[in-house]
Amino acid sequence: MLKIQEFINCFDDINEANKYLKQNLNIESVLHMDEQVILYRAGLHADMSNPIVRETHCLVLDVEGDVMGKAWNYPHVVNSYKELPPGFNFISSVIAEDLPDGEIIVVYNIEGKWIIGTRDHASGKKYFPGMDLPGFTFEHEVKAMLAKRFNSWDKPFENVNPMICFIFSYVNPYLKCVMPVISPQLFLMAVINLENGEELSHTAVQGQAIKMGFELPKWSEINGVTSLNFRLDSLRALCPGIMLRDKAGQRVVITNPIHEAIKDALEAGNRVCPTHMANILNACRDKADVTAIRATYRDYGPMLELLWNCRIELWQELLTLWKTAETIENLKEFAVTIQYHPLNYILFKFRDKLISNIKDEVEIIKPRKLVTLTKERWEREFAAASEQLKYAGGS
User: Fold this and answer.
1) Burial class (CB in 10 A: 0-12, 13-18, 19+), 395
2) What is the pTM of this model?
3) What percent of the chain stands above pLDDT 90?
4) Dihedral sign from CA coordinates of 316, 322, 325, 327
5) What is the Cα–Cα distance from 115 to 387, expressed in whole angstroms?
6) DSSP conformation class of 17
7) Taking the CB of residue 153, how many other CB atoms lie within 10 A of it?
8) Domain residue spans in the chain?
9) DSSP states of 264-326
10) Which of 145, 131, 134, 133 is nearest to 174 (CA)?
């Protein structure tokens, strides 16, 4: 039994329990009359360290409080392996999966009928973002995709134990994703045993995927921080990140800063500006990442290239200036020698051994500072690149 079920059982009525969950734990619940089920999800400011809150990831209960469907517990979301939560087990092998840039889909069974649900609707009646057209819902599109592939959309679920549910990631060209796709795809992410609320092992999920004819996301086994860092270094530039799962079933998402920066630029719409491009550049690991982004987002290319070149020029200037000033012992003379460079503070820090690498410091200068310096140095080219951003939704 889930902790949230134990909590609900303390009340005489599930509606009374749901009111308490909303008021005190910021857990939202919506009754879907067609299926007579309740969809739960954590609110915007819910406490994700609370185990009851973490159980509400796509959680579907019937009006009696029995579990009909659920995804894995909300994972811990971090920006670096250094932020992994206490207790995450690296001693034994950990599964690392690329996160598809899509929508979570839950397929579960009610009285012999398979239901397609999303995070926002227990039966997938959520419309595609920006596509509020009749019938253009996640349920309709996922069923159409499965029917085209298997002749009948629910054929893969025939003779399947109704006490398990399936978690997919659905990717579609119509969704506003950072990583564009040509055609719809469906990746099997997890299988949940509803009798105890636990996930099946990754090996069991592999078996289900082969048996039912579904794809898995790209995955690998890692052992320790060294192999994790190698895995992160090989992550594709536009991928949302990777999800780790240890032997205890604990899940952690390590986000990809490039994906987050591009997502912010896309969401800015007609307000996208050079500062968004500087944020993207600061997230890039190397020129290969910049090249990959330019290939996908061509209107970003001129500004990204200009900012990149400015950063290289600033670094080279600082190196040249350091060769002139490094032997000067008198602090005042040192200050006079480097006073006119806009990033002279970096040389002060390098002189005092507060940093070990000038280039690394240049690469993390504030986006607005980089934009200002680039505009000052290449005013005409900057204007042309800014004009190009208009085609990406800028102004």
Assistant:
1) exposed
2) 0.87
3) 74
4) negative
5) 48
6) H
7) 19
8) 1-70, 74-98+221-255, 100-216, 260-392
9) HHHHHGGG--HHHHHHHHHH-SSHHHHHHHHHH-GGGHHHHHHHHHHHHHHHHHHHHHHHHHT
10) 131
- What are the pLDDT digits (tens) for 122-142? 887 877 665 556 667 889 899
CATH class for domain 100-216?
A: alpha beta
Pair of tokens at residue 330: 């008198």
Q: Write the CB contacts of 322 (distance below 8 Å, at least 6 apart in sequence).
A: 347, 350, 358
Give the tokens for residue 336: 């006079």
The share of the chain scoring above pLDDT 70, in percent, equals 97
CA–centroid distance for 362 within its chain:
27
Return the C-alpha torsion angle 58, 62, 65, 68, nearest 10.
Answer: -50
Q: Is the pLDDT of residue 292 over 80?
A: yes
pLDDT in tens, 358-385: 999 999 999 999 999 999 999 999 999 9
**What pLDDT, on a 0 to 100 scale, did the predictor assign at position 82?**
85
Report the first-to-last Cα separation within the chain, whole angstroms.
54
Q: Which residues pair with 98 in a beta bridge?
A: 242
Q: Which residue has the tokens 């006073």?
A: 339
Structure tokens of 129? 């973002």
Rounded to the nearest 10 degrees, how much is the dihedral formed by the CA atoms of 133, 69, 201, 186? Answer: -10
Q: SS3 of 139, please?
A: helix
User: Do 127 and 135 form a contact (C-beta atoms < 8 A)?
Assistant: no
